Amino acid sequence: MSDPHEFILQHISRHIVLSEQDIQFFKSVLRHRKLRKRQYLLQAGDVSLYENFVVKGCLRAYTVDNDGTEHIVMFAVEGWWVSDLYSFLTGTPATQNIDALEDTEVFSIEKKDLEKLYQQVPEFNRMFRILLQNAFVAQQQRIIGSISQTAEEQYHSFITKYPTLEQRLPQNQVASYLGLTPETLSRIRKQQAKK
Amino acid sequence: MSDPHEFILQHISRHIVLSEQDIQFFKSVLRHRKLRKRQYLLQAGDVSLYENFVVKGCLRAYTVDNDGTEHIVMFAVEGWWVSDLYSFLTGTPATQNIDALEDTEVFSIEKKDLEKLYQQVPEFNRMFRILLQNAFVAQQQRIIGSISQTAEEQYHSFITKYPTLEQRLPQNQVASYLGLTPETLSRIRKQQAKK
DNA sequence: GGAATTACTTGATCTAGATCAATCTTCTTT
DNA sequence: AAAGAAGATTGATCTAGATCAAGTAATTCC
């Protein structure tokens, strides 16, 4: 499994079955890239030209508001796809930044190639349909949490849902994902330690 | 366009092209239903057995928290699809309620039929992939708004994004969608009227 | 068409979480 | 291994929006 192609093909085979020919074509559109920790994969203002699959490491997509505060849109670890989808679909400048929280390896697919892929191997429509359904459900839950739960409840949901992420991420990144300040999250953790 | 089948077929033809045979099969899996205002399409606790397309009227999907407060997950007007997707996919009891804010007509597709549809007319994978991409983008924006904007900013974003919905919905429903109390929304509107 | 729900408004008060500030700890990088 | 940067903690204070309460305006429905 040290071969990165092996890893992505495994992932895909969970949802669709590809012929040897399909696999060859798919591999041919993948561009393998390595990012150092803190390196950008996408900067707000540029157009998101690629859909990216994380092979190793961890990325974050985030926006920066008027007073310079970062707000995390999503994390992407091994097996996740990430881009600024709106920018990718429309060709308009990205509002999101994507950078590496750890040294990271990705496969990137260019938009034109992805379109070709959908045509030549329509099964990929099915795969992304399924992945997007799952993302849709997760996002709805995050929205409901965000509008109906206290900070403490949201944090608790987060660690139950993503126990490994919680281990792996700096606390301030989790705070930003939840829409809290690092101070508030620190206090919540202190509280919980008592129990 | 008074024929409801005409309406849904029009919508679908924006994304995919169907043969006469495909159309016949598609129509055969649609169940047309009418709901009175306030009538449930789905109650939390029941399994979401259908994916529903709104032909006429307006639905809301919402959860109810421990103190009985409702939180709106989404609205669905003409041309939108709605279900408790998690329940629909997994067969587990729904956490969401769906009911009618106006007298409403929908087409419902049973899960088994939808699966058959994906098999017999794989183009539907493509269509739902595209619709889900759009939903993904919209939900990301809602999440970012919710964790980074003030109540006033969120309300402003809402009316710019959904001007017709804003007209059509009771104010307290909009408040609930935004995660605000009706009192707060009322005060925001009063503020804005001054300007 | 009038009673009864349901929706909206306005005021007074409260509170969860933000902000500001200072210190401490843990990683990075050389 | 030491210096610097980034992350975490703790305390004091502030504030946006919630809650509680009471009244007014719209709808709904017999």
Describe this structure in words.
Chains A, B: Keywords: Kinase, Transferase. Chains A, B: InterPro entries: cNMP-bd_dom, cNMP-bd_dom_sf, RmlC-like_jellyroll. Chains A, B: It holds the Pfam family cNMP_binding. Chains A, B: GO terms for molecular function: kinase activity. Chains A, B: This is cAMP-binding domain of CRP or a regulatory subunit of cAMP-dependent protein kinases. 2 copies of one chain form a homodimer. The first copy, chain A, is an alpha+beta fold and 195 residues long. Chain A has a domain of 108 residues: Jelly Rolls (Sandwich). Helix content of chain A is 51%, strand content 22%. Chain A is built from 9 helices and 8 strands. A 4-stranded antiparallel beta sheet of chain A has the order 1-8-3-6. In chain A, helix 2 runs antiparallel to helix 4 and helix 8 crosses helix 9. The longest helix of chain A has 26 residues. The radius of gyration of chain A is 18 Å and the shape is globular. The N and C termini of chain A lie far apart (41 Å). Chain A binds a DNA duplex (30 and 30 nucleotides) through helix 9.
SSE layout:
The structure is a homodimer.
Chain A (H helix, E strand, L loop, with lengths): L3 H10 L6 H10 L1 E5 L4 E3 L7 E7 L1 E7 L5 E8 L3 E2 L2 H6 L6 E4 L3 E7 H10 L2 H26 L2 H11 L1 H6 L2 H8 L3 H13 L1
Antiparallel strand pairs in A: 1-8, 2-7, 3-6, 3-8, 4-5, 4-7
Helix pairs in contact in A: 2-4, 8-9
Chain A binds a DNA duplex (30 and 30 nucleotides) through helix 9.
